[in-house]
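Page 42, continued from yesterday. The earlier attempt failed because a stray header line got pasted into the input along with the sequence. Redoing it now with the clean sequence only.
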Amino acid sequence: MPMLYTYLIWSVLLVLLWSVVFVFTRNKKKMLTMSLGTAPLGLTEPLFYPEYWSPPTLFGLGEIYGFDVESILFSFAVGGLASTLYELGSTTKAKSIPSDYKLGRMHRFHALALSSPVLVFAFLELTTSLNSIYTASMGLLAGAISTVICRVDLLDGAIKGAAIFSLFYFVFFSAMNWSHPNFVDLYWNNEAISGFRVFGVPVEELLFAATLGALWSNFYEHRYWQSRV
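This time it went through. C-alpha cells are written below.
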C-alpha cells in the first residue's frame, strides 16, 4: 500500500476490528459509550504532531492544521477496545452499586478521581518539557491508580485490561510495521523519545497502551457506579 495512506488504512482496519469485537461483547453500551467519549481526544493531535510523530494524513490535514481524520478514527476504536477486550469470554455481569456505598469515605472525591487523568496531564504539560506521549501516559496512569484507590474491587480489571490491550496493541502495531518496515524510522520523532523498541514497536506506544488499558477497562464502572458479579 502507498505509504501516504498507511495511517488511514490501519485506522480503518482498527475500526473494523472494533466492529468484530462489538458483535461479540456482552456490554455493547459500555463499548459504544467509551468509544464515543474517546473519539474527541483525537483532536488533541496538535500536541503530538510533529513533536512525537508526523505520519502522512488524508488531504494533508495533519501537516497543515495538526488535526486529521485518522486520529479521530483511531481514538474511537482504541477507546472501545481498551474498555472491552479483556471482558470477552467473561460470564460476569454489571451490577449497580447500592446508594449507601457511594457515601463512603473513599468516594467523597469521586469527581476529582475521574478527572485526575486530565488534571495530571494538563499540569505536566504546563510545568514540564516532557514529550506529550509521556505526559499523556502519566495522566492515564494517575487515573488508573485513582480508580483502584477508590474502588479496590476494580484492581483485577485494571491489571487484565492493561495486559490484554497491550498485547493486542503490540500485535496490531507489529502488523502495521510489517506492511511498511520503515514507517517508524520515517515518521516518529525518534530524537525526542527514548529510541527503545520492542521488536520494532516504540516502547512509548506500549506504555500508552498499558496505561490506557489499565484506566479505560474500569472507567465506565467507576463513572457509573457499577460492579462486576
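Notes: The longest strand covers residues 94-96.
Reminder to self: strip header lines before submitting.
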